[in-house]
Recover the amino acids of this structure.
């Protein structure tokens, strides 16, 4: 499902081709020491993680729960060792190789790095570079490219990259956004990073109700299966991992005391099954202020009731005009934006 995104009125994106859903984000590091994530309304945030084989950005760890992706700044030494250093320090976010140096074999080096990431994690590594390098070499081994082209660099997008196969376009280094003091890099993305895994942003497992390991499992004493009716259960299990829980949707479904005979979850029973989750409250109307309060608290998490009340998703982060959430229906689970008017209610879970 493609969800249209409203664009700032003062910016004209009509020159962008193809015309599709666009997302907006920032990339930061310790060079942005003052960041208020409660005020940051971007769709995604990337943060520097590592460099070479001996450097970790000093602010990465404390900000990790707020980011969708991280990047490793390559120095051109041993590609596998640099990849191993990155993997030893990064989290469950989208991984990116930042390539900005001169090298005898840039394509070969970057391919080795990406192959090492895939070998150890099963994940696709994205590549960041500038427009000139992106056009100059015949890149191999990457599905997504993050390309920098600033044009007049006045804080607004001006000249689209000549490298047409970009996924993210870093269009300025002189951007300004709420929540960040001073200038910051701004980006437009055609694809939202899929590893935005938690509330607020990272550090948990996104469960799908249609995982083959449990999609046909019946929930409690009902005849309802997780695959057809397990969005609530899967969202609770997803947010539980944010609190350090290890229960899967199947673990919940096998408990006869958790559901009515019609397969409806009994919220209060969750805390009798999970050692990490306490049920706090079920709200039957949308309330932005209350959702924000609990979404910004690391000890609480929010499950959103959407699709006219028939579906539940795990809230991840507030974005422009709504909330980013992990939708458990597809396999694997995907991140989707739900606008304020699409949310019919919500439930708050608390860490025990």
């Amino acid at each position: 499902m493609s969800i249209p995104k409203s664009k700032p009125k003062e910016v004209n994106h009509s020159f962008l081709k193809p015309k599709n859903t666009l997302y907006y984000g920032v990339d930061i590091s310790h060079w942005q020491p003052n960041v208020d994530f409660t005020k940051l309304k971007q769709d995604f945030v990337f943060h520097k993680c590592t460099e070479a084989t001996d450097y970790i950005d000093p602010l990465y760890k404390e900000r990790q729960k707020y980011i969708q992706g991280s990047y490793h700044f390559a120095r051109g030494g041993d590609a596998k060792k640099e990849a191993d250093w990155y993997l030893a320090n990064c989290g469950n976010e989208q991984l990116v190789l930042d390539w900005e140096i001169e090298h005898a074999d840039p394509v070969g080096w970057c391919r080795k790095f990406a192959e090492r990431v895939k070998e150890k994690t099963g994940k696709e590594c994205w590549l960041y570079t500038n427009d000139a390098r992106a056009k100059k070499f015949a890149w191999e081994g990457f599905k997504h490219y993050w390309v920098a082209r600033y044009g007049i660099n006045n804080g607004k997008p001006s000249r689209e990259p000549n490298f047409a196969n970009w996924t993210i376009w870093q269009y300025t280094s002189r951007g300004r956004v709420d929540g960040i003091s001073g200038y910051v890099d701004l980006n437009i993305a055609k694809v939202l990073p899929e590893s935005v895994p938690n509330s607020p942003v990272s550090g948990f497992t996104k469960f799908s109700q249609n995982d083959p390991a449990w999609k046909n499992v019946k929930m409690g004493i009902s005849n309802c299966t997780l695959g057809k009716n397990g969005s609530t259960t899967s969202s609770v299990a997803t947010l539980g991992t944010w609190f350090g829980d290890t229960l899967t949707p199947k673990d919940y479904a096998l408990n006869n005391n958790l559901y009515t005979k019609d397969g409806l979850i009994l919220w209060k029973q969750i805390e009798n099954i999970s050692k990490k989750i306490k049920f706090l409250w079920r709200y039957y109307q949308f309330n932005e202020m209350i959702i924000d309060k609990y979404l910004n608290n690391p000890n609480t998490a929010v499950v959103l009731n959407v699709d006219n009340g028939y579906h539940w998703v795990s809230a991840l982060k507030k974005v422009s005009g709504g909330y980013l959430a992990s939708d458990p229906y597809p396999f694997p689970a995907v991140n989707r934006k739900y606008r304020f008017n699409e949310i019919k209610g919500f439930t708050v879970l608390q860490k025990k």
Notes: The longest helix spans residues 106-121. DSSP finds nine helices and 15 strands in the chain. Residues 1-20, 195-202 have pLDDT under 50 and may be disordered.
